[in-house]
Design goal:
It is a single chain. About 0% of the residues lie in helices and about 45% in strands. The strands form 24 sheets. Strands 1, 12, 13, 15, 16 and 17 form a six-stranded antiparallel beta sheet that branches. The longest helix has 16 residues. It is flat. InterPro entries: FN3_dom, FN3_sf, Ig-like_fold, PTPRJ_TM, RTP_Phos/Ushers.
Length: about 1250
């Protein structure tokens, strides 16, 4: 029996060899070897070439190997494009060592050894496996070596199959050639399976041969002999192919009906091409369900007979058989022969599938139609089929090609083909002379489909001329890139998905570009002309037309050059020239130009001076020729730029506004249509310079600076002469060069020094240019006298001195300066200056009737002939007058408005000073006679002082005598309470302490008020007043556990001040203890229960709302019962006298009533586990009861114990029933 194992896979990675040239194609190759045992041992290999591009038609591989058994055969050459990603190698011998060599050949290398490898194929399993059972514990396993291939050892595996031998699992390796092995220590009567493997060169067979056997059981002579009789199992049901592809068939079958007894299915396939042609499938489930098996490694398109049988140990059923085909391989490389594609037909070509595949024919169809055509299979590698009579030119069709084996078709191979569209019609061309472009139009054939048009043009008559291809989706196109002067062949094709129609062609000629006249020069009795053409334009020759101005005669010259000289023309005449380019008998647009010939020059030029800055020029006309006017121009020697005057037709011209001091060159020439004669007439003349004017005298005591604007025109130097007016014989001279005397371009400044102070001088000034003198300019300046006196200023603060200034001075010596008088001024136009003679002995001057507080500028000079010296200057200010009255016009709690009278004289502002509440001096400045002082403290006395100020710190500040007055501010609301906090907090009341500083009283405090609000209940609010002398206060009737906001304010006669806030959550305490006589009362009792009554008003909510109640029961009330955790009823059962215990978990009974009746002892506590239990009381026993109230989980208070209550003694059943009846009646009423 053959059992399939999972495949073993071996990969060998081959790296690039460093000696290979870099331009060769190299790959890392993986050799994938898979060995699968079949009826005849064999092995399949796949040589993987992952990166083989297959693009080089000349590249190929040659595979060689030893020993020479396999397919493809040794030394087989395979083209690179035919390989794909791997080379399939099959029919290898099992258990054999193979050596492989792969050679690569392309255009540059021949038989280059790409890689070599040695592999060992897996051996076949042993054959003829049998087992001889010798006894219940021993057996001998026998086998034969594989029928094909080599081996080195065998592996025997023995597995226990029955329950008695399930733990038996042993493996043995046999290296000798005895082909048998003894197995010992077996279990009598147990079933085992033997698996035999072959080992060759360390490699184990991927399949094994197996056999089951059962050891004999020892029997006694009295035991019966068990005989097992086997019968043939039932035949399986129908089966189908659930999945199929090129190499796989997955079959699915139904179990036999009835199922019968069997353990396996045997599934086989014929021809036996599968990796495993016989499969054994275990039965699954009871009753069994459908089963399946897959056959892999089949030949594509081949028909196979598949049979399924059931097996029970060595018995096998009759087969269920069926025939199925695998999917054939698809065709390859669906292409279309462009030579056979027309407007209504095409030819499709395809290649036969690569590899082994069985099929009968090809099926060819178009996706849009249901018609299918068949092509018989042939031995040719390429097949084809012609589609004809298709009436849709330009449309795209999807062609599907399949291989057919029986009725099974392969996966489709597809390709798209587009029929050739019909040619366009009515192709025309139009030349647009305005834009120098060509427009072509055409019409599409209405029976054709196309998505665009292809326009192709190329230049004729020239090798490698202008050629271009354009596309458009419209039937009108503007060709803007045609070169001028060319002959073109132009064609238009309709295009549908890159399939072109036949061409429709025409021939077109383009006009050459217009030449451009580049240079047109006048020459003596002629013209020299040159032009240039567009580099992209072609022309055969040029035509030049010219005509004389005023005549109708036109002359034509033809040339192939781009320049021309025209001679023997009339001097001074104007000519119009036109230049044409000619190509293919088409003339370009002309380029026209007008040019005149040089005229003859004028004669006999003379010049006449008319005014100081103008001349009159005369000349004679030329001897012959034509001219239109005369041109006059001139320039100076310092400026090379010519100045052109308006043209004239007379023989004289007046040149005016000539620059003084310049030397001029004047030219006269004849002009004809803007062209001047090359030989003009010219003369030279010089204009006298301008004298100086507008002299500014900058006079000092010992020097004079003369400053004047530079005269218009040219000046080379200045000549200055001067002497004292009373002594003409002391003449002095100074020459000043113009370019050295000026500090800038527009002003001349000359310093004359070493003069006597207070003396008058005479000055004469002239200018020179090119040796010519200007007129003389004279002036009579006087030097300034000196003042060397000391001046003292005196004024007083007293009332009679506030309008007087007295000046005292010392004399200036006459030897140092000549002067006549002293002059004194206060800088006020209303106060006259005072003067004193130079020889006056009284050295004091007094000014009276002045303005108090005014600043006076005191100036003193010496004066000589009306010329004053530099002044001595002083500044002094008179003291201002003080104010006489100070009043308060408005008084509030924080402000006081003051007003006072205005003082006489001048002043700048008023200074108001006072002491603040912090005893700091505050000063305020104002320019008005009123001010409002703010930010004062209410109910305070302030003293204000006002001082009049005149001047500033930087301009002689004077202050008057001060005036003071006192005022008191009004009351205001008090400030915020400084300290506000509780001194004692109880659940329903709180005691506060507060304080208000006297500085924040702002008046007389009348009272304090505290307001409070419950943050969770705004209706719970109130206010309480306190006397002004109090600093403590108690707030009552608050709710325990609630949060309150407390706000305190102080109050004066004006009102309340701002609030100070405090937030407090009231504490919750245990309820107040009730009076001793407040105890629960007895309502009813029985032998095991006591009913008590208590009321809601037993406990007060003063320390917090009572939320829960519980009952404390005590037989021994002397024991402590004040703890939070009380014993339960179960806890006291072990005592003969019960300690105080809690009868129930806390609860709240007063939801809708104020009285609660509670019965003690009503529960059965046998199964009670959690919390407190209200268990029965003992009969005939005295108890005392108290009630516990809770305001919180750990805050509680108890009442006093009740009066003693004794339970009833147990009695007869009738009496007990009566007690129950009475109890029920009480409950009802």
């Amino acid at each position: 029996m053959l059992c399939q194992l999972s495949k073993a896979t071996t990969r060998i990675r081959l790296k690039r060899q460093k000696a290979v040239p870099p331009h060769c194609w190299l790959w890392s190759l993986a050799l994938l070897a898979a060995f699968t045992l079949k009826d005849v041992s064999c092995a399949d290999l796949a040589i993987s070439i992952p990166n083989n591009p297959g693009l080089d038609d000349g590249a190929s591989y040659r595979l060689d190997y030893r020993p020479p058994f396999g397919y493809p055969e040794p030394n087989t050459t395979i083209a690179s494009r035919d390989i794909g990603d791997e080379i399939q190698f099959s029919r290898a011998l099992p258990g054999t060592k193979y050596n492989f060599w792969l050679y690569y050949t392309n255009f540059t290398h021949h038989d280059w050894l790409t890689w070599t490898v040695t592999i060992t194929t897996a051996p076949d399993p042993p054959s003829n496996l049998s087992v001889q059972v010798r006894s219940g514990k021993n057996a001998i396993i026998l086998w034969s070596p594989p029928t094909q291939g080599s081996y080195t050892a065998f592996k025997i595996k023995v597995l226990g199959l029955s329950e008695a031998s399930s733990s038996y699992n042993r493996t043995f390796q046999v290296n000798d050639n005895t082909f048998q092995h003894s197995v010992k220590e077996l279990t009598p009567g147990a079933t085992y399976q033997v698996q035999a493997y072959t080992i060759y060169d360390g490699k184990e067979s991927v399949a094994y041969t197996s056999r089951n056997f059962t050891t004999s059981r020892r029997t006694r002579h009295k035991e019966l002999l068990d005989i097992k009789i086997l019968r043939e199992p039932n035949t399986p049901g129908k089966f189908i192919v659930w999945f199929r592809n090129e190499t796989t068939l997955l079959v699915l079958w139904q179990p036999p009906y009835p199922a019968g007894i069997y353990t396996h299915y045997k599934v086989s396939i014929e021809p036996p091409d599968a990796n495993d042609s016989v499969l054994y499938v275990e039965k699954e489930g009871e009753p069994p369900g459908p089963a399946q098996a897959a056959f892999k490694g089949l030949v594509p398109g081949r028909a196979y007979n598949i049979s399924v049988q059931t097996m029970s140990e060595d018995e096998i059923s009759l087969p269920t058989t069926a025939q199925y085909r695998t999917v054939p391989l698809r065709p390859l490389n669906v292409t279309f022969d462009r030579d056979f594609i027309s407007s209504n037909s095409f030819r499709v070509l395809w290649e036969a599938p690569k590899g082994v595949s069985e099929f009968d024919k090809y099926q060819v169809s178009v996706a849009t139609t249901r018609r299918q055509s068949t092509v018989p299979r042939s031995n040719e590698p390429v097949a084809f089929f012609d589609f004809r009579d298709i009436a849709e030119p330009g449309k795209t069709f999807n062609v599907i090609v399949k291989t057919v084996s029986g009725k099974v078709t392969s996966w489709p191979a597809t390709g798209d083909v587009t029929l050739r569209p019909l040619p366009v019609r009515n192709l025309r061309s139009i030349n647009d002379d305005k834009t120098n472009t060509m427009v072509i139009t055409w019409e599409a054939d209405p029976a054709s489909t196309q998505d665009e048009y292809r326009i192709v043009y190329h230049e004729l008559e020239t090798f490698n001329g202008d050629t271009s291809t354009l596309t458009t989706d419209r039937t009108r196109f503007t060709l803007e890139s045609l070169l001028p002067g060319r002959n073109y062949s132009l064609s238009v094709q309709a295009v549908s998905k890159k399939m072109e129609s036949n061409e429709t062609s025409i021939f077109v000629v383009t006009r050459p570009s217009s030449p451009i006249i580049e240079d047109l020069k006048s020459i003596r009795m002629g013209l020299n002309i040159s032009w240039k053409s567009d580099v992209n334009s072609k022309q055969e020759q040029y035509e030049v037309l010219y005509s004389r101005n005023g005549t109708s005669e036109v002359r034509t010259l033809i040339t192939k050059e781009s320049r021309l000289v025209i001679k023997n023309l009339q001097p001074g005449a104007g000519y119009e020239l036109k230049v044409f380019a000619v190509s293919h008998d088409l003339r370009s647009e002309p380029h026209a130009y007008f040019q005149a010939v040089y005229p003859n020059p004028p004669r006999n030029m003379t010049i006449e001076t008319v005014r100081s800055n103008s001349v009159l020029v005369h000349w004679s006309p030329p001897e012959s020729g034509e001219f239109t006017e005369y041109s006059i121009r001139y320039r100076t020697d310092s400026e090379q730029q010519w100045v052109r005057l308006p043209s004239v037709r007379s023989t004289e011209a007046d040149i005016t506004d000539m620059t003084k001091g310049e030397k001029y060159t004047i030219q006269v020439n004849t002009v004809s249509f803007g062209v001047e004669s090359p030989m003009p007439q010219e003369v030279n003349t010089t204009v006298p310079p301008n004298p100086v004017s507008n002299i500014i005298q900058l006079v000092d005591s010992r020097n004079i600076t003369l400053e004047w604007p530079k005269p218009e025109g040219r000046v080379e130097s200045y000549i200055l002469k001067w002497w004292p007016s009373d002594n003409p014989g002391r003449v002095q001279t100074k020459n000043v060069s113009e370019n050295k005397s000026a500090d800038d371009l527009s002003t001349v400044r000359v310093l004359i020094g070493e003069l006597m102070p207070g003396v008058q001088y005479k000055f004469d000034i002239q200018t020179t240019s090119y040796g010519i003198l200007s007129g003389t300019t004279s002036l009579y300046p006087r030097t300034m006298p000196l003042i060397q006196s000391d001046v003292v200023v005196a004024n007083g603060e007293k009332e009679d001195e506030r309008d007087t200034i007295t000046l005292s001075y010392t004399p200036t010596p006459q030897s140092s300066s000549k002067f006549d008088i002293y002059r004194f001024s206060l800088g006020d136009a209303e106060i006259r200056d005072k003067e004193k003679l130079a020889n006056d002995t009284d050295r004091k001057v007094t000014f009276t009737g002045l303005v108090p507080g005014r600043l006076y500028n005191i100036t003193v000079w010496t004066v000589s002939g009306g010329v004053a010296s530099l002044p001595i200057q002083r500044q002094d200010r008179l003291y201002p007058e003080p104010i006489t009255q100070l009043h308060a016009t408005n008084i509030t709690d924080t402000e006081i408005s003051l007003r006072w009278d205005l003082p006489k004289g001048e002043y700048n502002d008023f200074d108001i000073a006072y002491l603040t509440a912090d005893n700091l001096l505050a000063q305020n400045m104002t320019t008005r006679n009123e001010i409002t002082i703010s930010d004062l403290r209410p109910h305070r006395n302030y003293t204000f002082t006002v001082v009049v100020r005149s001047g500033t710190e930087s301009s002689v500040l004077r202050s008057s005598s001060p005036l003071s007055a006192s005022f008191t501010t009004n009351e205001a609301v008090p400030g915020r309470v400084e300290r506000f906090h509780p001194t004692d907090v109880q659940p329903s009341e709180i005691n506060f302490e507060w304080s208000l500083p006297s500085s924040e009283a702002n008046g007389v405090i009348r009272q304090f008020a505290i307001a409070y609000t419950n943050v969770n209940n705004l209706t719970d609010a109130g206010m309480q007043d306190f006397d002004s002398e109090e600093s403590f206060g108690l707030i009552k009737n608050l709710k325990p556990g609630e949060t309150y906001v407390f706000k305190i304010q102080a109050k004066t006669a004006i009102g309340f001040g701002p609030e100070r806030e405090y937030r407090q959550t009231m504490p919750i305490l245990a309820p107040p203890r009730p009076a001793t006589q407040v105890v629960p009362t007895e309502v009813y009792r029985s032998s095991s229960t006591i009913q008590i009554r208590f009321r809601k008003n037993y406990f007060s909510d003063q320390n917090g709302q009572v939320r829960m109640y519980t009952i404390i029961v005590a037989e021994d009330d002397a024991k402590n019962a004040s703890g939070l955790e009380m014993p339960s009823w179960l806890d006291v059962q072990s005592y003969s006298v019960w300690l105080p215990y809690q009868a129930i978990d806390p609860y709240y009974p007063f939801e809708n009533r104020s009285v609660e009746d509670f019965t003690i002892g009503t529960e059965n506590c046998d199964n009670h586990k959690i919390g407190y239990c209200n268990g029965p009381l003992k009969s005939g026993t005295t108890y005392r009861v108290k009630v516990r109230a809770f305001t919180g989980p750990d805050k509680f208070t108890d009442t006093a114990y009740s009066f003693p209550i004794q339970t009833e003694m147990l009695s007869s059943p009738g009496k007990q029933r009566l007690e129950v009846l009475v109890k029920d009646l009480r409950v009802l009423f």
